[in-house]
Amino acid sequence: MGESRVDKDTFYAFMKHIPKAEIHLHIEAVITLDSVKKLYRSRFGTDMSKTEQDTLFSYSDLNGFIKAFLKVQDLFQSVSDFDLVFADFADYLAGNNIVYCEAFFAPTAFLKKGFDYGEMISNFSRNIAAIKEKKNITIKLLVDVSRTFGCDNAMKNYMLLKQFPCSDVIGIGLGGAEQKGPSRNFEPVFDQAKKDGFHVVAHAGEDVGPESIWDAIRFLHAERIGHGITAVQDSRLMVYLKETRLPLEICITSNVFTRKFVKKPENHPIKEMFHKNLLVTVNTDDPVFFKTTLIDEYWIVYNKLNFTMEQIKTLICNGFTASFMSADLKKDFIASVEKVWNGTALPD
Question: Which of 54, 146, 229, 348 has a 20 to 30 A CA-CA distance from 309?
């Protein structure tokens, strides 16, 4: 395809053809505003005002975002409300040609509302199977045990995961307010999950320095790091990540939006990480909350960070490489990326 640059419309048209993986995404954050308004009307018996809509998605830091996230969760009244989530989820995945996704689900707020975990998992499995049948998209879930509610609560969530085994749920992740919940506090939960054969991942280095990433590695034995952008502050950590090929789940718009370490896309460290041969992947985190899509994120990488198309192809393949699917499936998906990429014309 050469190295000539293309305009936005051409880029988007091309990228919609390319199969992709996304491995850092929260399912509650794919719900559209239309669905939020339906939940609001059902909950309160009145329409959501324009001011409430604008306020809900208005925040300037990670804690503000988490509060908004919890507000949306609070609108849910029954397990059947997740049908709206998965309908929006399916549209989002299909619209970005995401053929494989590993997504987070945070159960705590729903359990506190009295939802039954087993019923939720049953609903998820039914919706996931329908999406696979109708759109040939594979979805796997990671339970977000969350720093926000402490270790005891995290262990309760994990024990529910064990009590209701499901092939769609492949592990746990540590999310929530990074400053308030150091990884070391959650070591017992992650130790147990590892012993039981589940995958473990952790958000780290998003809102705290590289010491948070080291803790996720040392205490949680995390198999992937969510965000991890502060790794660039520690040369020894950068070497470790390169040598171990420990994947980083990069979310550019999310990192810029929370404005802790990155103020604008052009300054995002993904380019330095990529050129130092770290295994970086591109993701959205919370597409509705941050008003982005996966293709939007790749456009930022291309347009703001000056990645070449060949480098973007590497990033797309990295998404499959860093996933928890089998080695054979990874090869098959990466081969499909190469085939479609080489067979799709990208005009000069």
Answer: 229
